[in-house]
Design goal:
The protein contains 17 helices and 5 strands. It is mostly helical. The strands form 2 sheets. Strands 1-2-3 form a 3-stranded antiparallel sheet. It has a two-stranded antiparallel sheet with strand order 4-5.
């Protein structure tokens, strides 16, 4: 216990991070091509599509992956902090009104976009990077499941897919409600066999697994590994998209960008220095940076945190220098995935750009109404309670890896136009889309 208080005391005295000025004149990345992506099996992707929208994978059979990453909402939910297990409806219309089954807290972070997660170069996932490719535990990944993560997950995308299924407020539910969450309460890997059995005993699923996986000869051989690999095959192919005006520009089409977007590109890769973090073909350095976003919501708390807060990367690394830093998001199709930031603090691209240019002024001017939070009266007092902690607010305000840059309004508009030029021509025309029904017979959101 003394060690925990020592860590907390250090956090109280956390020094300001060094602010590095943006680099200018960054080189444009090479164009993305199909060779930059994992080539997933088509039959597995089709199976993954059904699983993605099937509520059979949730503890109470009332929410699917697609509920919070829906085709109609650009692969997200359109909310700052969503309502997971226990909610009803989709996206901004999702509510939790049942007195018997009302949510106990909001999802602590914004639902991340799914675009281009099948790229070969992706090595870290989640806002805090708590999933990484690694040999640390002998299963290919450093993850919250540590050595209990099963062998055979073919990609980091497959490894990622198993964790929302075991998250209490995302898909698992409360321990007293169902056998899945009850098993997780004992140990995380105890839930995956339960979910796998639910799926494989459905005759249609059993046949699909036998057809899609060469090593599966009978449905009873299906495990969470095959389920995760199928989900990854779907996500990795369904949201692959790199046919935007920007991509055409990189391929040599000088007329692909409007004059305003071309000016924004020059600012992005030049004097404003956006590409110092949003670098490379994926438009992300896959590193962690502190932007000083307004704080609200329940936070991704640790067991000893005395209040709602989110320390970002430090929650995974336990290093003070990582406090309040979050992973740089990839930007293709970013115009389709509002709101923005790890907690969805900003509803528009312009607001997010202006925060990068003046983080302190933006944080001070931010209004609670800027957050897209589904109505839940019993949670409203807690939604912004972290803002009443003066010491925590001071620590977060000091943690900045960006410095103010003065830009004229027309330059801000040019940056927004460039970000809009990252929207793919076929972004809204996905290969498989949302299924009308799933083998479990449960309703599809």
């Amino acid at each position: 216990m003394n060690r925990l208080f020592h860590i907390f005391a250090l956090c109280l005295a956390l020094p300001a991070f060094a602010v590095e000025p943006p680099r200018s004149d960054a080189a444009l990345p090479k164009p993305l091509t199909d060779n930059d992506f994992i080539q997933f099996d088509a039959a597995q992707a089709k199976l993954g599509q059904l699983l993605f929208y099937d509520k059979i994978l949730s503890g109470n059979r009332n929410i699917s992956c697609g509920t919070c990453h829906h085709h109609d909402l650009g692969g997200t939910d359109g909310l700052s902090l969503g309502i997971g297990e226990g909610g009803e409806g989709l996206g901004p219309k999702r509510v939790s009104q049942s007195a018997q089954d009302r949510i106990r807290k909001r999802i602590p972070r914004n639902a991340p976009a799914l675009w281009n997660l099948g790229a070969k170069d992706i090595r870290v996932m989640f806002h805090d990077g708590r999933l990484e490719t690694s040999d640390l535990y002998g299963n290919g990944f450093n993850s919250p499941a540590e050595e209990w993560l099963p062998q055979g997950l073919e990609t980091i995308l497959a490894a990622q897919a198993v964790f929302p299924l075991t998250a209490r407020f995302e898909m698992a539910g409360d321990p007293e409600e169902n056998e899945v969450s009850g098993a997780v309460n004992d140990r995380i890997d105890n839930a995956w066999p339960i979910l796998a059995k639910r799926v494989r005993i459905i005759p249609e699923y059993g046949e699909l697994f036998v057809d899609a996986f060469d090593h599966i000869e009978a449905p009873e051989q299906v495990t969470i590994v095959e389920i995760a690999n199928a989900l990854a095959a779907f996500i990795g192919t369904e949201w692959r998209n790199h046919d935007s005006p920007f991509d055409k520009h990189l391929a040599g089409d000088e007329a692909a960008l409007t004059a305003e977007a071309a000016r924004g590109l020059d600012l992005f890769y030049g004097e404003v220095g956006c590409a110092s973090c949003h670098s490379g073909p994926l438009l992300s350095d896959q590193e962690f940076h502190a932007l000083g976003l307004p704080a609200f919501g329940p936070g991704k708390t640790r067991r000893f945190d005395p209040q709602p807060r989110d320390v970002g990367r430090m929650g995974e690394s336990d290093r003070l220098e990582d406090a309040y830093r979050f992973r740089t998001p990839m930007l293709r199709n970013v115009a389709l995935t509002s709101p923005y930031g790890h907690n969805g603090a900003f509803p528009t691209l312009e607001a997010m750009v202006r925060h990068h240019l003046d983080p302190i002024g933006s944080r001070n001017a931010w209004q609670r109404s800027d957050a897209r939070l589904p109505a839940a009266e019993w949670l409203e007092r807690a939604d912004f309670i972290v803002q009443s902690d003066a010491r925590e607010m001071a620590r977060q305000a000091r943690a900045l890896d960006i410095e103010p840059i003065a830009l004229a309004d027309d330059d801000v508009a040019a940056l927004v136009a460039f970000l809009q030029s990252l929207t793919g021509q076929t972004a809204l025309d996905r290969p498989l889309g949302r299924p009308s029904e799933v083998p479990s017979g449960l309703a599809v959101d």
